[in-house]
Design brief:
Radius of gyration: 19 Å
Shape: globular
Strand order of the largest sheet: 7-6-5-10-13-14-4-15
Distance between the termini: 58 Å
CATH superfamily: LarA, N-terminal domain
Strand content: 15-25%
Number of strands: 15
Structural class: alpha/beta
Number of domains: 1
Largest sheet: 8 strands, mixed
CATH class: Alpha Beta
Number of helices: 12
């Protein structure tokens, strides 16, 4: 017997034969909320985050008693390379603001082939102490109830954490902006791919362009209600693993992931027309953005430095072919052994890539 659990204009979730199943409905992804606000990160980080939050009227996203799922980007980062993962200082201050407006925040991320998101990793990335001190829940999205989901245009069902589908859970996609050697850029939509509960998600790289379709699908169903793309340092180059840090000290706030990602693609110097997951979710709509008055400027020198260190679009297509074979290594072996490459990758980053970039100001 089929029992409907959730039903809205985007998807349905139901229980059948003891399993949670779901399917995507045909729907328009673009909301038309074009406004983005650029906030400078100053030493008084809490005030910076509050100002950006208020200027985009982010409070209107939530109702009192809502849960705010802050989806950070940790899985693809490198220890000590702040440009490769979401800055814990910014997240901590966002939590304070959310609590002030009566929202219950929690931070979340899912396992991937190279990392189990556990206390050891949270400590290495600067999260564990303030999570404990501020009593902030952390949810490993791979360790909770899953929905086997059928996306439009994708044959196999994919595990989606049930918690991110509940109507009283509002999703904040909070990545650091960086280049990605197979998808071009990582910003709001790509960050939601990391929320897929199945740690074996590297298998979606096995078919050319499948990864882009899965990224698009994950962002459609686990759709951010608020996008915050912020960092002290942009990760330029061969992200997510080899990031050249470029001082940025900006946070971009917006409510529509397509508008935010288009704006961020220009910052990252990567043509949005070549970001396939953006093209899929645009559904032939003209996507645009509008920068709100009072936004911080981004200097031409910074934009030039990012552009000079970006991954060339033609290299992305080559990298898909070059990296293809590794994804056929059994997922269980990847999960068991790839984490031990962390030390090598960390050494390579600090030896060859970090020195090419900027030093943190604060």
């Amino acid at each position: 017997m089929k029992k409907i659990i959730l039903d809205n204009d985007r998807f349905q979730v139901y229980r059948q034969d003891g399993k949670l199943l779901g399917f995507e409905k045909k729907h328009v992804v673009y909301t038309g909320q074009e406004e983005v606000f650029i906030q400078e990160i100053k030493p008084d980080i809490i005030q910076s985050m509050k100002n950006g939050f208020n200027r985009i009227n982010a409070e209107t996203v939530f109702e009192k008693g809502d849960y705010a799922a802050i989806k950070i980007n940790l899985g693809g980062g490198i220890h000590g390379v702040l440009s490769s993962y979401t800055d814990p200082d910014l997240v901590k201050e966002l939590v304070i603001k959310l609590r002030e407006i009566g929202v219950v925040p929690f931070i979340c991320e899912a396992d991937m082939r190279g990392h189990e998101i556990n206390q050891e990793l949270l400590r290495a990335r600067g999260y564990l102490d303030f999570l404990i001190d501020m009593k902030i829940p952390f949810l490993n999205l791979s360790k909770i109830k899953q929905v086997l989901f059928k996306f439009r245009g994708i044959k196999k069902r994919i595990s989606i954490p049930f918690a991110l589908l509940k109507p009283n859970v509002k999703i904040i996609s909070f990545p650091c902006p960086k280049h990605h050697w197979e998808c071009g850029i990582t910003v709001s939509q790509k960050n939601m791919y990391g929320a897929i509960g199945d740690y074996r998600k590297s298998r979606f790289h096995r078919k050319y362009e499948l990864i882009d379709h899965v990224v698009a699908a994950a962002a459609r169903i686990m759709k951010p209600d608020l996008c915050i793309v912020g960092t002290k340092q942009v990760g330029a180059g061969l992200g997510p693993h080899f990031c050249i840090p470029i001082n940025f000290y900006r946070v971009i706030f917006g409510k529509d992931m397509l508008s935010v990602d288009k704006f961020c693609s220009e910052i990252l110097g990567y043509p949005i027309d070549l970001v396939l997951y953006q093209k899929i979710n645009a559904q032939n709509n003209q996507i645009d953005y509008k920068i709100l008055p009072g936004s911080a400027k981004i200097s031409e020198d910074v934009l030039k430095k990012i552009y000079e260190n970006r991954i060339p679009p033609e290299e992305v297509q080559k990298d898909k072919g070059i990296l293809w074979a590794q994804y056929f290594i059994p997922s269980s072996l990847q999960f068991k052994y790839y984490r031990y490459l962390e030390g090598i990758l960390t050494w390579m980053n600090h030896k060859f890539y970090v020195p090419k970039g900027d030093k943190l100001v604060f």
